[in-house]
Amino acid sequence: MAYQFVHIQTYSLKSTKVAGTNDHFNDLNQVFGEALREPRYCDHVPAPRTPAEIKWPGAIPLTDLRAHHDTRRAAIRETVQQRNGGSYERGLKSDAPTLYTEIHSHPMTSEEYRACSKDDRAEVNKWMRLVVKDFVSRMPPGIEFSAVLHLDEKYVHIHILALNMADPKLSANKLHVGKCAAAQWREEHGPAQTITSLPRPELEPRPSKPKRPKPSKNRMTQAKREAAYVEDLAAWEESCAEIEQRNAEALDAWKRKNDKHLHLKRKTQSRKHSDKAAYEAAMTSFQDRYYEAVGKPCGLLRHGPRKERLSTVQYGLRKAQAEHIAKVEAAQRDLVLSNRKKSQALEKKEQAQSQKAKQIEMEQEALEARREAAARQDSALTQRERAV
Length: 388
Fold this sequence. Notes:
By secondary structure, this protein is of the alpha+beta class. Helix content is 55%, strand content 13%. The strands form three sheets. A five-stranded antiparallel sheet has the order 1-7-9-8-4, with helices on both faces. A two-stranded antiparallel ribbon has the order 2-3. A two-stranded antiparallel sheet has the order 5-6. Helix 4 runs antiparallel to helix 7 (275-295) and helix 5 (177-189) runs antiparallel to helix 7. The chain is elongated, with a radius of gyration of 38 Å. The termini are far apart. Residues 186-223, 342-388 are annotated as: Disordered. This is Mob protein.
């Protein structure tokens, strides 16, 4: 096995740029469409396949989740206070995140999964159950979610989409552990410290463009005016080119200087106490918790090879060790379960024997009581006979 992979994110109606890309933008409609394998959102998938709905208590079909989201979002109204004391209502802003998502990937390829043995498929199914079980345990009450399995990309992976139905504004950020930690830090410490750039240089303005001369009835005069205009226009264009060159050089120098300034400020700024540090700490804790709940039982590593710059051989040994640990822990769990079952069976047997002994004791007490009653009757009969 390899290392674990889980990614969480929130989305809104407004498209946002994907980190590390130049022209890739995502919004909640694109996320819903990709999960449902709608053709317009699946250009990256060579041969799209219908996703498999993961059945779990509380999970609903993805199409129903999308319908619930659209209906609930359209019904939300916000009250906006104006400066003059008035107010008005409006719909939820387009950049308000209302969809929470998680992507969980397994190191087994989709092709291997479709052709693997029952035992290997059982391992993936076990991972799938642990993923959804851990997700449900982390979520607050009042959410709706869907989970689908995709087998048409390189690796087997799960999409989990959730709605925070208990929140009046359907806020997805309140389900994101990192964003919750950052928001709590800002609530306790105030707004995060911002780093300001150096003032931009004042750019040199372009000169006014020469005006075209008025037409003249005299051809000679008209020709002279046109020639002078052409010369003035050429001189103006040359002057503009020089100014643009000087402005570009000034901006380039400012950019280099500003980059150094920002880099120095970021280095000297205290990152240990900031909303970003709180976010990163929460996400690290989330990955650690996920490893204990999902990664470790499935033989997955917590970190990949780049974290410690491992060689291929070292990484292979680490993966083999993780698989061995998972197998040992599984065997230990099976042994504990077996011992527990034996203990429960022995306890039931002891309880049955104890109940049987109590029943025998009660029967003996009842027999003794009957004997005593018979003895009393005999004594009474003997006394009556004497009296007669």
